[in-house]
């Protein structure tokens, strides 16, 4: 089966209908034993130091891992992706683009997806059949999410891992489904995790995935991963077609639309605080100003760059934040 890389979540149903094995390049980059080698490769080829590490990592993965075709999202995600595609095309990689519409209107979403289907010459009926199959896997991811925040049995990292992996289902949605069924069966046998503080993680999935284990060293745990959850399309089963599903995908549209769903989850999951993760040199860092104004909950913003482990300063800030949340919960403030 021919492989195609993606720079972030795209209508994967179209690519599967076209006979591709879909590979989320972010997941290869961030889970690598030494992800810095991908960044170093990009910088040797001229990418600036001030460019986002994710963009450099995706570039490095494409070249080092022999990716010959790629779909880049040029609207609704990273503002640097358009330039990335131009460089990759120069390197002989076949590039396709997908743009989430700037206006959050269903007819515009339909037009964008239909154009994408035409690009790969696949019928709507085949796409919908694939969507039905994927929804079986997505329903299991939703079950694992419930095991995290309702039954307190799944860890924050497990929640993060399987939701973020839903962008490409690890390259094989059938194997992914089988693995998840086994994982859920094991988790259901556990005793509930008893932690005082319930945290939410908003913003792009982190390079520093050790944050989940780190907060558990204290009396805290993550029970909500915002963007990762959106990758898994938790509301897909409620929609009649692919157009409605991607219209309801919050991450790529305006911030107010995202915040409506975040606010619902703050209340539904009874969160004590949020950690907002942003990537250095990304325009989304500016969104932290709006988020802190519009959400009535303590929020700590942390920023990642090239490291895939938390540095000492960030650990200290997280510890101080958790101390403050503990004092608030016990009524000491």
From TrEMBL:
- Keywords in alphabetical order: Iron, Iron-sulfur, Metal-binding
One of this protein's Pfam families, by short name?
HGD-D
What cofactor does its activity depend on? [4Fe-4S] cluster
GO molecular-function term, one example from the UniProt record = iron-sulfur cluster binding
Keyword Transport tagged:
no
Per its UniProt record, what PANTHER family does this chain match?
2-HYDROXYACYL-COA DEHYDRATASE, 2-HYDROXYGLUTARYL-COA DEHYDRATASE, D-COMPONENT-RELATED
Q: Which family does it belong to?
A: Belongs to the FldB/FldC dehydratase alpha/beta subunit family.
* Protein name as catalogued: Benzoyl-CoA reductase/2-hydroxyglutaryl-CoA dehydratase subunit, BcrC/BadD/HgdB
| Species | Orenia metallireducens
- UniProt lineage: Bacteria, Bacillati, Bacillota, Clostridia, Halanaerobiales
């Amino acid at each position: 089966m021919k492989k195609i890389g993606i720079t972030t979540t795209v209508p994967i149903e179209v690519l599967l209908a076209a006979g591709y094995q879909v590979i989320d390049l972010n997941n290869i980059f961030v889970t690598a034993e030494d992800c810095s080698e991908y960044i170093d490769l990009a910088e040797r080829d001229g990418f600036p130091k001030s460019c986002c590490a994710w963009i450099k990592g995706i570039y490095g993965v494409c070249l080092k891992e022999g990716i010959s075709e790629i779909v880049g999202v040029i609207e609704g995600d990273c503002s640097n992706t358009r330039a990335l595609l131009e460089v990759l095309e120069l390197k002989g990689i076949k590039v396709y683009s997908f743009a989430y519409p700037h206006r959050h209107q269903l007819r515009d979403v339909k037009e964008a997806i239909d154009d994408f289907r035409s690009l790969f010459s696949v019928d709507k009926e085949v796409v919908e059949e694939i969507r039905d199959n994927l929804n079986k896997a997505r329903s299991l991811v939703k079950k694992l999410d419930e095991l995290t925040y309702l039954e307190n049995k799944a860890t924050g990292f497990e929640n993060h891992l399987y939701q973020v992996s839903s962008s490409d289902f690890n390259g094989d949605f059938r194997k992914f489904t089988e693995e998840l069924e086994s994982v859920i069966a094991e988790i259901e046998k556990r005793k509930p995790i008893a932690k005082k503080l319930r945290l939410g993680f908003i913003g792009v999935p982190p390079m520093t995935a050790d944050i989940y284990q780190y907060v558990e060293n204290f009396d805290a745990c993550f029970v909500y991963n915002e963007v990762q959850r959106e990758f898994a399309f938790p509301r897909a089963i409620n929609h009649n077609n692919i157009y409605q599903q991607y219209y309801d995908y919050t991450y790529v549209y305006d911030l107010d639309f995202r915040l409506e769903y975040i606010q619902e989850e703050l209340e539904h999951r009874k969160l004590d605080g949020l950690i907002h993760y942003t990537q250095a040199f990304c325009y989304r860092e500016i969104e932290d100003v709006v988020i802190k104004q519009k959400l009535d909950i303590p929020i700590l913003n942390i920023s990642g760059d090239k490291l895939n482990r938390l540095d000492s300063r960030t650990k200290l800030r997280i510890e101080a934040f958790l101390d403050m949340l503990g004092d608030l919960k016990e009524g000491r403030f």
